[in-house]
Amino acid sequence: MKEKLDEGDIISKAKISIKPGISLHEHNYLCTLCGGELLVQVLNKIARGEKIPVERQKEGLYYSWPGPEDVNVFLKKGFSLIHLQDLKLYFE
Question: Are the CB atoms for 18 and 27 separated by under 8 Å?
């Protein structure tokens, strides 16, 4: 186990596409939902006594929280930071 977040081995992963028309906020929301689902899957495997395959973390494959330059690139590609309709995500 590592002391810092996201420095250890990979025990589960998924791909999430950036969909045209969604905001950065909605994209982060979808990533959060996916992460929660992955966590539940791994915990269920552990509860069943299944072996969890481990993948070594590779250099340069980690995408952190977007910084100012990342947000500028995102906006230049025609995406938005947040839409008013994003608030509905929390009431569904």
Answer: yes
Question: Model confidence at 88, in pLDDT bands (50, 70, 90)?
Answer: confident
77-81 long-range contacts (CB < 8 A, ≥24 apart) are 79/18, 79/22, 79/23, 79/24, 80/23, 80/24, 81/23, 81/24, 81/25
CA distance linking residue 2 with residue 38, whole number of Å: 19
Asked if residue 13 lies in contact with residue 38, where contact means CB atoms within 8 angstroms, the answer is: yes
Q: How confident is the model at residue 49 (pLDDT cuts 50, 70, 90)?
A: very high
**Distance (Å, whole) CA 80 – CA 78:** 7
Query: Can you give the residue ranges of every domain in the chain?
Result: 24-87
Q: What is the pTM assigned to this prediction?
A: 0.70
